[in-house]
Design a protein that fits this description.
Length: 193
């Protein structure tokens, strides 16, 4: 939540802005407007939103590869506005679906069967302190409690996105924690080929 441009965090992939429609002057009874900003993908590039210290909204357009750069794009962000936030969001996704033709709106998708299963994600239990022993103990505890998970998501929050600058003197770079994390997890016979 925020009230100005500098409040928009890095890597913002969707933004809904609430404002008053003051096109005919400022009135207390002016309708509330909701505007969606949906950054898009284009070729090898993706767009994201971010604020800056001048309270401006910026569009960051990147490939994720320093060797692939551009300073232009045709379709960076789709915007749509209206008075009902739910309709605005729904119409935004439908318009992006029609334009991009790379995905289907949720109304057209069949739900995967695994949604009927109970699964467990390690993030809420361990955050960044995921260990093989912790995962094993968590699975054991859930099973002994009568709710064995049918799938497991191991999430140690490796991708840190924050507005603070990178420490150039830091010896360990983002992603380097994989060198010491989860090294003791081994697949059981069920998954060995």
């Amino acid at each position: 939540m925020g009230t100005c441009g500098k409040d928009i965090p890095l890597e913002t992939q969707f933004m809904l802005v609430e404002s008053k429609d003051n096109t005919e002057g400022e009135h207390d009874d002016a309708p509330t407007m909701y505007t969606v900003f949906l950054p898009l993908l284009e070729g090898n590039f993706r767009a994201v939103l971010q604020g800056n210290e001048n309270n401006e909204l910026e569009i960051c357009f990147e490939s994720g590869d320093n060797a692939i750069e551009t300073n232009q794009g045709n379709y960076l962000v789709y915007m749509h506005a209206g008075t009902n936030p739910f309709e605005v969001i729904n119409e935004t996704v439908k318009a992006a679906e029609k334009h991009m033709q790379t995905f289907l709106h949720r109304e057209k998708k069949k739900l995967p069967s695994f949604l009927d299963w109970f699964g467990w994600c390690t993030w809420d239990a361990f955050y960044t302190d995921v260990t093989a022993e912790g995962v094993e103990e968590g699975l054991k505890s859930l099973s002994e409690g009568g709710t064995p998970p049918r799938f497991l998501i191991i999430d140690d929050g490796w991708q840190q996105i924050g507005s603070e600058g990178k420490d150039t003197n830091c010896v360990v770079q983002e992603g380097a924690q994989f060198a010491s994390r989860l090294t003791g997890i081994k697949e059981n016979a069920k998954f060995q080929k």
